[in-house]
Amino acid sequence: MAAAATVPASAAALRARRLPLLALGFVSLLGGVLAGLARLGLAVPLPHLDLAMLHGPLMVSGFFGTVIALERAAALGRRWIFAGPLTAGLSGALLVAGAPPLLAALLMTVASGVLLAAGVWVWTRQKEGFTATMAGGAACWLVGNALWLLGAPVSAAVLWWALFLVLTIAGERLELSRFQPPNRWAGPAFAAAVAILVLGAAVAVAAPEAGFRVAGLGMLALAGWLARFDVARRTVRGSGLPRYVAACLLSGYAWLAVAGAVALAGADPTGGQYDAVLHALFLGFVFAMVFGHAPIILPAVLRLAVPFAPRLYLPLAALHFGVALRTIGVLSGELAVRQWGGLANAAALALFIVMTAHTVLAKKAPARRIP
Q1: What is the pLDDT of residue 254?
Q2: Distance CA 117, CA 138 (A)
Q3: Cβ neighbour number for residue 272 with a 10 Å cutoff
Q4: Residue 188: inside a domain, yes or no?
Q5: How much is the pTM?
Q6: Predicted local distance difference test score (pLDDT) of residue 297
Q7: Which of 94, 129, 164 is the last residue of a domain?
Q8: Domain range enclosing 78
Q9: What secondary structure does DSSP assign to 187-220, as a single string?
Q10: Burial degree of 308 (CB within 10 A; 0-12, 13-18, 19+)
Q11: pLDDT reported for residue 9
Q12: Contact 293, 285 (CB under 8 A)
């Protein structure tokens, strides 16, 4: 009995250390969502007017950077790696509070440097393609943050930020693809897609529209690779959580292809196609991955069970509906349609958080006795 009692206590102590880091990430998420809605011309409360211009750094570095760095630190169990989620979380919170962006950019650069060091540390112990890809994603985050720190426009940094997320996801899927039947073309095709993406990000520093076109080709290539070689093709035929995760992944790959097609057609940073590319990528692709992996990551990071419930399909459907509305609004030039798409996406994120929290709390609550 004594040994069994120590397990919950240990889990509670772990959550007490990690929950504040996750909370910092959610401060950035809230600030980023409000900033995004404000950029659409919607009247939303903002802590300060400059926040609307910080939508990208808040979402990528403040939220995703904190969450991904926290997941990596929890998986590796090295104390020094927790400096990554701490500095990323603080950077976003400072932006929301109105601190100088230069300070936040410096902290974001430190956070990405820590994550890159962790990625290299893993790669030296397991020299595989997937560990190199995830370390490469951290390197892209560092490049994007360094560009922003040095005063480059967001259009020069945003593809590097995008590659941070895309390569992190792709590296994880590459790892799982080892359970598929071997194919001699899988490795070279994956490497080619990644090389095109990195080339596009590099070109975009000096010529954003040309860089986006090149990156669009890479997005299409990677989306095709994921659709062909990912184990989700098989697990989607299952049931319960595996089927839900596969549905999130496959639907996200479709949006990655849409982002690539629109970028390849032309995405001038001053035009609407630019907005369509970024939100098909960050919302349609990346957040679909978040929805699918949350029931797996939360137990690993916070020792909280997240039982699968079919109602989780509802926020996923709302997410895709919102991205579709936003894309249609951009391509048709209808601002009102874009605004409704933005509101639908914000509602999808809120609904997913509420449903996940309710599922966790319902699982922990003791069952009532019927008198």
Answers
A1: 97
A2: 9
A3: 18
A4: no
A5: 0.91
A6: 84
A7: 129
A8: 16-129
A9: HHHHHHHHHHHHHHHHHHHH-HHHHHHHHHHHHH
A10: middle
A11: 46
A12: no
The residue to which tokens 């609307």 are assigned? 52
Question: Considering the domain boundaries, does residue 221 fall inside one?
Answer: no
Nearest residue to 108 (alpha-carbon basis) of 133, 78, 79, 138: 138
Inter-helix orientation angle 272-279/208-229, to 10°: 30
User: For residue 223, what are the contacts with CB-CB under 8 A and spacing of at least 6?
Assistant: 253, 254, 256, 257, 260
Q: Which alpha helices (H) appear in 49-100, and where do they start and end?
A: 55-57, 66-76, 83-97
pLDDT tens profile 136-158: 999 999 999 999 999 998 889 99
Are 210 and 204 in contact, with CB atoms under 8 Å apart? yes
User: Is residue 277 one of the residues assigned to a domain?
Assistant: yes
* The predicted structure's pLDDT at residue 325: 96
Q: Which residues of 151-165 are buried (b: 16+ CB within 10 A; e: fewer)?
A: eeebbbbbbbbbbbb
Q: How many residues does the chain have?
A: 371
Give a yes or no: residue 134 inside a domain. Answer: no
- Residue 79 carries which side chain, given as an amino acid letter? R
Contacts (Cβ under 8 Å, ≥6 apart) of 334: 328
Q: What is the pLDDT of residue 158?
A: 94
Number of domains the chain contains: 2
> Which segments in the chain show pLDDT lower than 70?
1-9, 267, 269-270, 363-371
Residue finishing a domain among 106, 129, 152: 129
Contact partners, residue 175, CB within 8 Å, separation at least 6: 128, 130
